[in-house]
Amino acid sequence: MSSPFVGEIIGTMLLILLGDGVVANVVLGKTKGNSGGWIVITTAWALAVFVGAYSSAVISGAHLNPAVSIGLAVAGKFGWGDVPLYIIAQMIGAFIGAVLVWLAYYQHWGATPDPGAKLAVFSTGPAIRSTVWNLVTEIIGTFVLVFGILAIRGAEGDMGSLAIIPVAFLVWAIGLSLGGPTGYAINPARDLGPRIAHAVLPIPGKGSSDWGYSWIPVVGPIVGAVIAALLWGILGW
User: Fold this and answer.
1) Distance between CA atoms of 149 and 141, rounded to whole angstroms?
2) What is the rounded distance in angstroms from the CA atom of residue 125 to the CA atom of residue 194?
3) Structural contact between residues 226 and 148, judged by C-beta atoms closer than 8 angstroms
């Protein structure tokens, strides 16, 4: 039970439970936090990163994100052989976290008439739909995330407990500064795992899971992570 696989499941589950949970609190009907706004969402997502990462850092290194696992592997900081196992664990954890949010807010799905708001709890979507520019936004956001993580790892020596705090601030800054166009997925598991949960859960009036957009929060973060890792290698920092 102390394996990295379990660590990534638990850490990612907590990340999504608290991250998607704040979106549910803000956008669903008749909640205490209804209409809390973007500051509430970005702050809680940063804290969700802290809780999820802190809980699993010693066990798995707290990647919680396929883009991070891939980026670290490209940078030579993580073994390629472990990448598939980590991604599977992250997807499982993200799905479980989304299901727990569904249960926690069970009475509020029916109190929310807008299907778009229900989908927003689980996955990201663009403010202005444009395949090219939505993809560019996700690439840029994840580039900042992975480059920042590499810098923090370089300063701290590893993703130990002290490194979790600056990573949480990093995610908070990305959300505040770059989250407006697409909702800053910056994590394929964060978006795809809960989107699958949205598709299969019995949510009243949920509407489409928007599969036509779903590849952008997967491909964009991976591309951004690879670019960040390659630049890190070129700079030799």
Assistant:
1) 12
2) 13
3) no
pTM score: 0.96
Determine the Cα–Cα distance for residues 112 and 124; give it in Å rounded to an integer.
18
> What is the CB neighbour count within 10 angstroms for residue 3?
12
HSE-up of residue 200 (Cα within 13 Å, Cβ side): 10
Q: Percentage helix, strand, coil, to 5, in the chain?
A: 70, 0, 30
Give the alpha-carbon dihedral of 33, 37, 40, 41, to 10 degrees: 100
Contacts of 229 (CB under 8 A, 6+ apart): 70, 71, 72, 73, 74, 75, 146, 150
- Are 45 and 175 a contacting pair, CB within 8 Å? yes
- Domains of the chain and any CATH numbers: 4-235 (1.20.1080.10)
Residue pLDDT, tens place only, 79-101: 999 999 999 999 999 999 999 99
Q: Are 31 and 24 in contact (CB under 8 A)?
A: yes
Q: What is the DSSP letter of 3?
A: S
